[in-house]
Write a structure and sequence with these properties.
Chain lengths: 112, 112
């Protein structure tokens, strides 16, 4: 089983809609969870982090965490064409130090 | 004043050659990484250094040798390049918590 799994997509939503991105992880001891956005030809950049069960909102973005189900999600409200990118779910795995493991990413297309 | 800078950005080379990628960060972070992103966009950690010491070494061929002369620099040398080494290599750094990873712009390596 892969350590961090995401649907590769592409996920296509119309402008103004809610985009829902999902991620599951295998390490029950993980405590830190992240969403990175990567535009084509660019490097990943952090957009959300979440450490506790529940929701965390930042502008149009909401991260949701359910540790019992080992599930992380990202909601993007009022999606814009500029949100079109690959969204990478990442999880810190405790290995003596820590290691950030990335999922394969979900490609999101927002149609104008 | 780029936070994480790596050179070269593009590299085309023949099989069997040896090449190096240099990386520097001016964020004052103790931890630096090399990640490899293949054609399917899967971002995989290769190495992690903390204050010049190797702390994570994934199952990477011995042809890949990282070197950290000081905590602000982490270089990657690759011997006997193979076609399968073609990928984007990202250098990155993070603060002690590891909760945000700052990526360089990437080095696009093509082996022909």
């Amino acid at each position: 089983q892969k350590e961090v799994e995401q649907n590769s997509g592409p996920l296509s939503v119309p402008e103004g809609a809610i985009a829902s991105l999902n991620c599951t992880y295998s390490d029950r001891g993980s405590q830190s969870f992240f969403w990175y956005r990567q535009y084509s030809g660019k490097s990943p950049e952090l957009i959300m982090s979440i450490y506790s069960n529940g929701d965390k909102e930042d502008g149009r973005f909401t991260a949701q965490l359910n540790k019992a189900s080992q599930y992380v999600s990202l909601l993007i409200r009022d999606s814009q064409p500029s949100d079109s990118a690959t969204y990478l779910c990442a999880v810190n795995i405790a290995t003596g130090g820590f290691k950030t493991i990335f999922g394969a990413g979900t490609r999101l297309f927002v149609k104008a | 004043d780029t936070a994480v800078s790596q050179t070269p950005k593009y590299l085309v080379t023949q099989m069997g050659n040896d090449k190096s990628i240099k990386c520097e960060q001016n964020l004052g972070h103790d931890t630096m990484y090399w990640y490899k992103q293949d054609s399917k966009k899967f971002l995989k950690i290769m190495f992690s250094y903390n204050n010049k010491e190797l702390i994570i070494n994934e199952t990477v061929p011995n042809r890949f040798s990282p070197k950290s002369p000081d905590k602000a620099h982490l270089n990657l040398h690759i011997n006997s390049l193979e076609l399968g080494d073609s990928a984007v290599y990202f250098c990155a750094s993070s603060p002690p918590s590891g909760n945000t990873i700052y990526f360089g712009e990437g080095s696009w390596l093509t082996v022909v």
